[in-house]
Amino acid sequence: MSGIGFPRSGGSVVRRSRPRSSALTIIAVLVILGLNYLNQQRQGPGPAPAPAPVPAPVPGQVGAPQPAENSFHVKRVVDGDTLLLDNGIRVRLLGVNTPEIPHDDMPAEPLGYEAADFTRRLVEGKDVTLEYDRERVDDYGRTLAYVYIDGRMLNETLIEEGFSQAVTRHPYRSDRKKLFEAAEVRARSKRIGLWSLPAKDGGSNSRPDSKPVRSQR
């Protein structure tokens, strides 16, 4: 219906149109929205949110990238598993126990010289990188570490070449223990180094003669 009729005097009907206020309100809202949109287009997009900060690695933290200050120069190889650095620090390789060379009136153990010569050829006079584990120092004040030379871990290499058993009773990373145990298995299978020595009973050696392991804590 276009309108509502009301009688007026004389019998004729007057038709009154509906209010147009609601239509005007809608038009006003649309105009405001359009103006806001145009203003946003002129101003361009707002500044991008700042990226979240990346935490810096903790020096010596296991699994963290090792910073440049963990690179050291090896002054001298003490024996197969101990290094003397230029700064006077002695480094004991984690998870490794090579045969002894003569010291304190004790004779050399089988393959003691060979293990020391092997380590000497690899790292003496060269730069190495140290990676630390949960314990940093042993009972003799030596720094406990995994030692890397040209991306190669010396600890694992000594075990794989048969110069040490995998020493796993000390508290260090379980993944490294598995790595060293696998290296020992490979050395055993090739019967090299300690695994080539005759056993006390004269038969083939399935493991080296037991000897005290120098403390790594």
Task: Give a nutshell description of this structure.
The chain is α+β, with helices and mostly antiparallel strands and 217 residues long.
Explain the overall architecture.
The longest helix has 23 residues, at 21-43. Strands 3-4-5-7-6 form a five-stranded mixed beta barrel. 27% of the residues lie in helices and 18% in strands. The protein contains four helices and eight strands.
Query: Which class of secondary structure composition applies to the elements?
Result: alpha+beta
| Uncertain segments | 51-67, 206-213
Which CATH architecture of the domain at 68-196 would you pick?
A: Beta Barrel
Helix coverage percent of residues?
A: 25-40%
Q: Tally of extended strands?
A: 8
CATH class of the domain at 68-196: Mainly Beta
Distance between the termini: 99 Å
Which structural traits does this protein have?
217 residues, two-stranded antiparallel ribbon, 3' overhang single-stranded DNA endodeoxyribonuclease activity, 4 helices, alpha+beta, five-stranded mixed barrel, elongated, OB fold (Dihydrolipoamide Acetyltransferase, E2P)
Secondary structure layout:
Layout: E1 4-7, E2 13-16, H1 21-43, E3 71-79, E4 82-85, E5 90-93, H2 112-123, E6 127-131, E7 143-149, E8 152-153, H3 154-160, H4 174-190
Parallel strand pairs: 5-7
Antiparallel strand pairs: 1-2, 3-4, 3-6, 4-5, 6-7, 7-8
Helix pairs in contact: 3-4
Biased composition (Pro residues): 46-58
Pfam families: SNase
EC number: 3.1.31.1
